[in-house]
Design a protein that fits this description.
Blueprint lengths: L1 E6 L7 H11 L3 E5 L10 H5 L4 E5 L7 E5 L3 E6 L12 E6 L6 E7 L9 H21 L5 E6 L12 H4 L7 H11 L4 E2 H6 L7 E2 L11 E2 L2 E5 L1 H4 L2 E6 L15 E5 L2
Parallel strand pairs: 1-2, 7-8
Antiparallel strand pairs: 1-14, 2-4, 3-4, 5-6, 6-7, 8-12, 9-12, 10-11, 13-14
This protein binds one DNA strand of 15 nucleotides through loops.
Length: 260
DNA sequence: ATGGTCGCGTAGCGA
């Protein structure tokens, strides 16, 4: 089983890139972020034609997440629980049925939080507290659980080309890292670190300042695994060549391969 | 020191 996450930065502007990659890589489950469209305008047919079931939680202009699965989707939760006054579409969770049993997968688009300090940073931290609360509830099921997405968090200094350039940014501030660690320390494993702990690879290169050409990237797209999922992880691939394609997203897919 | 780039939607915001 291969489970991927990819911030596509508009699924409509990126449709050719997305369908090309789905055909090439053929992952079983894909978590998309920043689809930037309402559900009714999601290019559902083009993706269903490639053999995927599709669940979306869209929004006009900004944000929006989706989950694609070659296996049946049993149940779907739209929106991160505990945010009745939160109108930003940043979370969708599905239970996927597999011969070996169910796996619960969430597609997460964690708030960017810049500029920090400020209301956007407060929103980021509050959202992370809500995610922690919900993640703790899901972990209690003691099932295979994968929280995958654009976390907008640079976990280690080795996950950025130059930490000094990013000092003060909401993606690297100590408070942001601490909030991310609190979630991890509930009992999750960062799939990339388990599979490739000494490595440093990036998942995002800004469109500006020639970041891609200079390899000035950051690692902010993560797969967080429950113990039951981590036990079956075989490898993680960060699909760097995708960033070099025509009309590329600023993020590349991250794919976890599991032994079930 | 400043500006550089995308996408959305058609001005300016978000990243």
């Amino acid at each position: 089983m291969q489970i991927a996450t990819w911030n596509v930065n508009s699924v409509k502007a990126r449709l050719t890139n997305v369908t090309d990659w789905l055909r090439e890589a053929s992952p079983d489950v894909v978590c998309l972020q920043e689809i930037k469209t309402v559900d009714a305008d999601f290019p559902r047919d083009a993706i269903e034609d490639l053999g995927y079931n599709v669940e979306t939680h869209g929004q006009k202009t900004y944000n929006g997440v989706a989950l694609l699965s070659k296996f049946p989707i049993e149940e779907t939760v739209r929106g991160l629980p505990g945010g009745e006054d939160d109108d930003q579409a940043r979370y969708i969770e599905c239970v996927i049925s597999h011969d070996s049993g169910p796996v619960r997968v969430a597609s997460i688009y964690l708030p960017n939080g810049n500029p920090a300090p400020g209301p956007k940073y407060d929103y980021k931290l509050a959202w992370m507290r809500r995610l922690k609360r919900h993640a703790a509830e899901l972990l209690a099921y003691e099932e295979r659980l994968i929280l995958a997405g654009d976390y907008n968090i640079i976990p280690r200094d080795s996950d950025v080309h130059d930490p000094a350039v990013w000092a003060g940014d909401a993606l690297i501030l100590p408070q942001s890292r601490a909030a991310f660690r609190e979630i991890l320390n509930l009992g999750f494993t960062d799939a990339f670190l388990q599979a490739d702990g000494k490595g440093h690879q990036y998942t995002f290169w800004d469109y500006q300042r020639g970041a891609w050409q200079k390899d000035h990237g950051i690692r902010i797209d993560h797969l967080l695994l429950s113990p039951q999922a981590a036990d079956t992880l075989k490898s993680v691939e960060i699909c760097k060549p995708v960033r070099g394609k025509e009309k590329a997203s600023d993020h590349v897919p991250v794919v976890g391969t599991f032994d079930f």
